[in-house]
């Protein structure tokens, strides 16, 4: 019997127009055998949560460089919980100050990957933490 592949939604919330890092991560996840859906740039939290629901994903991987992570990441977690997606692993990445990471985790972000994190580390975290 075939094992079900992990489905990951890679999303760029807010007005951040830089997506090179998100595309690198998306490609690495795909190469590791995950099914990857990339939402493209400038998505609202509502669009991301709805796409995650429609695509029946296991993971939402958020990428943000604009500094709005303390507002956008928790809003996405909240919307996912409202849509009964508490089993979806939500991770974030980008230029996020170390001081902001504990607060993001307290809102439901499972892990935050900052610049310099290897794609292997991200892949292993997802494999170990998907329900």
Automatic annotation (TrEMBL):
Q: Which cofactor does it need?
A: adenosylcob(III)alamin
EC no.? 5.4.99.2
Residues annotated as domain B12-binding: 5-131
Q: Which UniProt keywords apply?
A: Cobalamin, Cobalt, Isomerase, Metal-binding
Has keyword Methyltransferase?
A: no
Pfam families tied to this protein = B12-binding
Molecular function terms from GO: cobalamin binding; metal ion binding; methylmalonyl-CoA mutase activity
Gene3D superfamilies to which the protein is assigned, alphabetical: Cobalamin-binding domain
- Could you tell me what this protein is called? B12 binding domain of Methylmalonyl-CoA mutase
Organism of origin is Sporomusa ovata
Q: What is the lineage of its organism?
A: Bacteria, Bacillati, Bacillota, Negativicutes, Selenomonadales
